[in-house]
Design goal:
- By secondary structure, the protein is of the alpha/beta class.
- The protein has one domain.
- The strands form two sheets. It has a six-stranded parallel barrel with strand order 3-6-5-8-4-7.
């Protein structure tokens, strides 16, 4: 009986140790925006809208956005401030209706992540 109990405890300990240090797998359906970044791309700066070879796919929404974006004419230095350009962009964006990477709400002030 003691042998069975020790075996069960040893098995439980090994199982606990092996699963404690395994990193969580990224859920492909969840948007991860932290520190105003998405997959290493800072969500501020000069943006070029393209039809292909985009860095990020966005969908415009009126509520429940991942980030609030304010379009500016110069100095897009804060989170969510985007300046539309045709060249020398920081990142490229494609507007889609389905299968977006992030949801964007266009605002007049107070840009940033929610």
């Amino acid at each position: 009986m003691k042998y069975i109990l020790k075996s069960i405890l040893l098995f439980a300990f090994i199982l606990f140790v092996n699963t404690s240090f395994v990193p969580e797998k990224e859920n492909k359906n969840t948007t991860y925006i932290s520190n105003c970044e998405f997959k290493g791309i800072k969500l501020k700066g000069r943006v070029k809208f393209v039809n292909s070879f985009e860095d990020i796919k966005i969908k415009y929404v009126k509520s429940f956005s991942d980030i609030d974006v304010k379009f500016v004419n110069s100095f897009p230095n804060d989170c969510g401030e985007w300046q539309i350009v045709n060249s020398s962009e920081d990142f490229k964006v494609k507007v889609v209706e389905n299968f977006e990477d992030i949801k964007v709400k266009v605002v007049g002030g107070f840009s940033g992540t929610n």
